[in-house]
Amino acid sequence: MSNLHDRSHFENSYAGKPPWDMGKPQAASAESVDLVISPVLDAGCGTGENALFLAASGHQVTGIDFVDEAIRIARRKADERGLTVEFQVKDALELGDWDKRFATVIDSGLFHVFSDEDRIQYVAGLTHVTEPGARLLLLCFCDEEPGSHGPRRVSQREIHAAFHGAWAVENIRATLLDVRPDLEGISFSEGGPKAWFAIIRRNSL
Ligand SMILES: C[S@@+](CC[C@H](N)C(=O)[O-])C[C@H]1O[C@@H](n2cnc3c(N)ncnc32)[C@H](O)[C@@H]1O
Asked: What are the residue boundaries of the structural domains of the chain, listed by start?
């Protein structure tokens, strides 16, 4: 069985219909549009719905994903909708030498795929690509979601621990993740998997 942090796991998902790929932005991300300041990074953007939603709202957005097929679809959607987003194939664990800087980072379903070691590398990379005062809007599976199907369950304590130091957790609220309505053989909580939506601000170092 492939691990969720293996690229091949996600390449296989995009060869079919990924459970998260609903053709619309996550409601929790869309509802937080007032918090967004450009330039925006959508880390682990998948086929781009959150990034495209923000571009349609007037934002300057870069979306990265390490699966070629996801980025190919995202670029096609941008063309079809007449929207401009810079979609790049890029590993979110390799942000440490990137010369771009962002005022907002959207993470919709990426952090929760990482191992403990990957979390450290990811947060260091996010710190590198943001200025003090930047915000990360993080949507992840929550430890109150029963069962073990899908990604790692994340506790509030783990979010605080992962971002301790260069970042400060401003708020965490309970929400639900949207998944495809036609999923078969997978049962999550009524209305969708339980999730945390965290607003996390980059401190001065
Ligand atoms: C659960 S999906 C969420 C996709 C999208 N953000 C959404 O809300 O629909 C997680 C995405 O993260 C991508 N991903 C996982 N690990 C990654 C990494 N190390 N670098 C870049 N993308 C990664 C996967 O390919 C997948 O598209």
From this structure: 7-202
Atom 27 of ligand 1: nearest residue by CA position: 46
Pocket test for ligand 1, best of 24, 53, 65 (most atoms within 8 A of CB): 65
Q: pLDDT confidence of 1, banded at 50, 70, 90?
A: very low
Alpha-carbon distance of 129 to 123, in angstroms, equals 10
190 backbone dihedrals φ, ψ, rounded to 5°? -55, 125
Residue 135 near residue 199, CB atoms below 8 Å: yes
Contact between 63 and 110 under an 8 Å Cβ cutoff? The reply is: no
Q: Whole-structure pTM over 0.85, yes or no?
A: yes
CB contact at 8 A, 204 and 154: no
Cβ–Cβ under 8 Å, residues 153 and 124: no
- Nearest CA-CA partner of 108 in 55, 159, 46: 46
Is 45 in contact with 63 (CB distance < 8 Å)? Answer: yes
Q: Provide the 10 A C-beta neighbour count for residue 196.
A: 25
The pair of three-digit structure tokens given for residue 159, joined into one six-digit string = 């979010």
> Which one is the CATH code of 7-202: 3.30.420.40, 1.20.200.10, 3.40.50.150, 3.40.50.300?
3.40.50.150
Helical (H) or strand (E) element with 73: helix 68-81
pLDDT band, very low/low/confident/very high, at 158 (cuts 50, 70, 90):
very high
Is the shortest distance between the CB of 109 and ligand 1 below 6 Å?
Answer: yes
